[in-house]
Write a structure and sequence with these properties.
The protein has 17 helices and 14 strands. It has helices spanning 23-34, 44-47, 50-59, 74-87, 97-102, 104-110, 123-132, 223-237, 253-265, 283-291, 306-311, 318-329, 349-366, 387-395, 435-445, 452-459, 461-470, and strands at 2-7, 38-42, 64-68, 92-96, 116-118, 145-148, 154-156, 194-197, 200-201, 219-220, 241-244, 271-276, 294-302, 335-340. A seven-stranded mixed beta sheet has the order 2-1-3-4-5-6-7, with helices on both faces. Helix 4 links the parallel strand 3 and strand 4 (92-96). The mean pLDDT is 95.
């Protein structure tokens, strides 16, 4: 079969840069190609316009088109799907990824252009779909698939169990993507290119704002196989810098130590970054990963108060974060970053003040290695399938007739902390602390901690508000 895998354009359907190649599609391409299918890949981000994307897809004469989108880019992604259907009326269009996994039935109701949705980990489900087509009567036998039957009724098959191990997966089909066209910031001074890699799958945490709820079981790539893949990236594509995508590289001390010891044993020269949880960190393990090439490390801190941490189910305390950051500061990474969100459940103006004070103490530990340009985090976004979506519905953040696959634009998009990239994503707020109140409090009490861009947006609020009122912004 001719299979064409396509990424979604960005929210504004304009050609733009992209930091890293799409790992999910690269894995799908690899398993499909290993099974004997002819596979091509198209980066919609670089083309931008849905019509241009569809025209490019049509030149591949596909039997099957596979695509996905993020929730923030979903409206442009949907426009792309509709254009692809127009250009390839006989192709079987299947979608997947986090957004469509959590909104499968809604997507099929709203988008007649879609034939099926792959829910959760896609490799085995997608492969079985290719094996069963063109016999659509057999689709009901594929776990993890949601589709329309011959009577146009939506059918949800039994869920697919997560892979028990990931060692058997082929290497991502990076040869289908021109890796030189991606623009992730350099990790080392002598590097020309960065590639994303996975050494684990899954995340056992239950953060209310995270859409990773379908993939909690942890699986680990054997360290020798992982380093084999890294050396292949270097020899085949000249890759020296790595972004380790793992949700928490340090989830398993055994895995992290094994991988780093393998890197050191082979005398590799990779520079890499990873993310981890700011909890119960081991100084010796941190030193080991630094010696094995880890130059940058980031942590999902989100807030600086136990009240908000508990309400957000971070399974962390301020005391644990402070202890972890103290340990990290002694290892001397080149760059240390944290992710921040302001306005999560439990937030008040008092907790905002406490968070700012707490983050100032952390910032003081790191000097020039501190990579957080602003202490004030982004406003919380609601994503499908999250507990925050359920809480947001109760708080009135979503319209009663809200659909994740129909047009939507944030009514308060004029506010200074709402990024244009997220105008189509519902923002979380509580009845006791509105987004307007958060912005007003920050302007009054924490102006010096806002970034230059945030300050500029505050000054432009009257103009932004007028544009929204006139329907031009």
């Amino acid at each position: 079969m001719n299979v064409c895998l396509v990424t979604s354009p960005r929210y504004n359907s304009k050609p733009t840069y992209k930091a890293l190649a799409p790992m999910g599609l690269a894995y799908l391409a690899a398993v499909a190609r290993d099974a004997g299918h002819n596979v091509t890949a198209i980066e919609g981000v670089f083309l931008g316009n849905p019509t241009d994307i569809a025209r490019k897809v049509a030149t591949e004469n596909p039997d099957v088109v596979g695509t996905s989108t993020s929730s923030s880019n979903r409206l442009a992604g949907i426009a792309s799907i509709r254009a692809i259907r127009q250009a390839t009326p006989n192709a079987f269009i299947v979608v997947g990824g986090s957004h469509f996994s959590h909104t499968a039935e809604d997507a099929l109701r709203c988008l007649p252009e879609i034939d099926a949705v792959v829910v959760g980990e896609g490799e085995q489900t997608f492969l079985e779909l290719l094996e069963h087509l063109p016999d659509r009567d057999a689709l009901g036998e594929i776990p993890g698939l949601v589709f329309r039957d011959d009577e146009n009724q939506i059918v949800r098959n039994e869920p697919r169990q997560l892979m028990s191990e990931i060692n058997s997966l082929p290497r991502p089909a990076w040869d289908l993507f021109s890796l030189r066209q991606y623009s992730f910031p350099k990790i080392s001074d002598d590097s020309e290119q960065t590639a994303g890699v996975l050494t684990t799958r899954g995340c056992p945490q239950q953060c209310v704002f995270c859409a990773n709820s379908l993939n909690k079981k942890m699986r680990f790539l054997d360290p020798a196989l992982a380093v084999d893949q890294l050396e292949w990236l270097h020899s085949s594509f000249g890759i020296n810098d790595l972004y380790i995508y793992d949700d928490d590289f340090l989830t398993s001390k055994k895995h992290a130590v094994g991988l780093c010891e393998e890197l050191l044993k082979r005398n590799t020269k990779f520079s890499w970054l990873c993310t981890a949880r700011a909890k119960q960190l081991d100084f010796e393990v941190l030193k080991l990963i630094r010696n094995a090439g880890c130059k940058c490390i980031s942590f999902g801190v989100e807030t600086g108060t136990n009240k908000v941490l508990k309400a957000s189910k971070k399974n962390l305390t301020v005391e644990q974060i402070a202890e972890a950051m103290e340990i990290v500061s002694k290892v001397h990474f080149d760059k240390v970053g944290i992710f921040l969100i302001i306005g999560l459940p439990g937030e008040t103006t008092e907790t905002i003040d406490q968070t700012v004070d707490f983050l100032k103490t952390i910032r003081a530990l790191f000097g020039k290695s501190w990579q957080v340009k602003k202490i004030i985090g982004q406003l919380p976004l609601i994503y499908p399938g999250t507990e925050l979506e359920e809480i947001g519905r109760k708080e009135g953040c979503l319209p009663e007739n809200f659909s994740w696959n129909q047009p939507y634009i944030q009514p308060k998009r004029y506010l200074p902390l709402i990024n244009k990239r997220y105008h189509t994503v519902p923002h979380f707020e509580t009845r006791s602390l509105s987004l307007e109140e958060i912005c007003a409090h920050l302007k009054r009490w924490h102006w010096d901690e806002l970034s230059k861009g945030q300050k500029r947006n505050f000054r432009h609020v009257p103009l932004r508000r007028l544009k929204v009122a006139l329907g031009i912004g």
